[in-house]
Amino acid sequence: YILTYLPEYLQQFQLWQKFAYGALLLLVMFALPRGIVGTLAYLFKRFRPAEPVPDASEGLPAEAALRREKTTQSSELVANGLTVRFGGLTALSKASLRVKGGEIHALIGPNGAGKSTFVNTISGFYRANEGEFGLDGIDLTDRRSLEIARLGLSRTFQNTELFGELSVLENVMAGYDQRLVYGVFDALLRTPRMRRQELECRKTAIGLLAFVGLLPYANEEARFLPFGLQRRPEIARALASKPKLLLLDEPAAGLTTQEIDELEEMVRRIAELGISVLLIEHHVDLIMALADNVTVLDYGQVIASDRPSAIQDDPRVIEAYFGTSTSHGKAAEAGV
C-alpha cells in the first residue's frame, strides 16, 4: 500500500503545491520588497538609536579638502573640433570650446542643440568620431569615464542621481571612493590604512556637506530630502573627487527663485576655490549673472563664444532662440 497507492494518492496535490509556492513567492515580494537580509538591515537601522548630527568641527573644511597641488600648466579644458555621429545623424559638428582655469563657463543653446552630446563626450560616456579634448594638458579623448573623473573632470547629471536608501552623508562619501587605494585584504582585516582612509573620507564628506548647507540632513535618507535640496548632495559628491573642473548639467532645473539664488552663491564659492566650472543651463538670468564666458551651440555647431554681454546682443544667438534676427525686443525681455 505504501509503495503503490500512497504515491498515487499524493500526486493530486502536486498542482496545488505549485500554486502554494507561487502564492508564497508573491507574498514575500510584497511583504519584504528588500528581501530578507535587506529587511533585517532596514529594521536594524530604523530601531537603533539615532546617530547625532555631525558637527562642522568634525569635518575637513572645503578649502582644505579641495586643495590641489599647483601644476606648471594652467588647469583648463580644451576641446577641438569634436564631431559625434549616431548612425547617419551628426549630433555634434566640429565643436570647439576652451574653459580657462578657475573660470565659470556657460554652455547654452536651444533644445536639441547638442549640449548633452557635448558634455557626455567630454566626460567619457560617448566617443568622438573626430576631434580631441584634454584637461590640464592631458589628452582625455580615448579615456573611459572613470579615468576622466580621476584625472580631474567631475560632473552632475540633468536628472538627480542619489542613492535613496543611503544617508545624505553616505551619498557624499561615495564620491570619495575613487580616491581610496586600499584593497579587499585591507577591508576584510580593517587595517590601519583602511581605517585612516575611511576617516579621511568621512571628514571630507562632512566638510562638503557644511559647504553646501546640508549638514543638518547628514543622517537623513537621501530619498526624503526636499526636491529643492536634492541637487546639493550631488554637487557635494562630485566635489568629493577633488576635481579640477566641475561640470554642472542643468543644476537649476525645478528650483525656486530663492533656491536659484543660493545655487548661484554656491557656484561662485566653488570657482573661488580655483575649480573651473562648465555650466549647462536654460536659466538665462543665472548664466548672465554667473558666467565669465558663454559658448552657444545650435544644431551641433558652435555659433558664438564670448562674454555674456556680447552674447546677449549677438544676432546669431537671437536667431537660434527666436527664429529671426529681428526679435531683439523679445531677446532683451528674455535676458538673452
From TrEMBL:
UniProt entry tagged with the keyword Nuclease: no
The entry's keywords: ATP-binding, Membrane, Nucleotide-binding, Transmembrane, Transmembrane helix, Transport
GO BP: D-alanine transmembrane transport; L-alanine transport; L-isoleucine import across plasma membrane; L-valine import across plasma membrane
Gene3D superfamilies linked to this entry: P-loop containing nucleotide triphosphate hydrolases
UniProt GO cellular component terms: plasma membrane
Pfam entry (one): ABC_tran
CDD domains xrefs: ABC_Mj1267_LivG_branched
Membrane-crossing segments per the record: 20-44
GO molecular function annotation: ATP binding; ATP hydrolysis activity; L-isoleucine transmembrane transporter activity; L-phenylalanine transmembrane transporter activity; L-valine transmembrane transporter activity
InterPro entries the record matches: AAA+_ATPase, ABC_AA/LPS_Transport, ABC_transporter-like_ATP-bd, BCA_ABC_TP_C, P-loop_NTPase
Domain ABC transporter span(s) in chain numbering: 66-324
SUPFAM superfamilies according to UniProt: P-loop containing nucleoside triphosphate hydrolases
Function: Involved in beta-(1-->2)glucan export. Transmembrane domains (TMD) form a pore in the inner membrane and the ATP-binding domain (NBD) is responsible for energy generation.
Name of the protein in question: ATP-binding cassette domain-containing protein
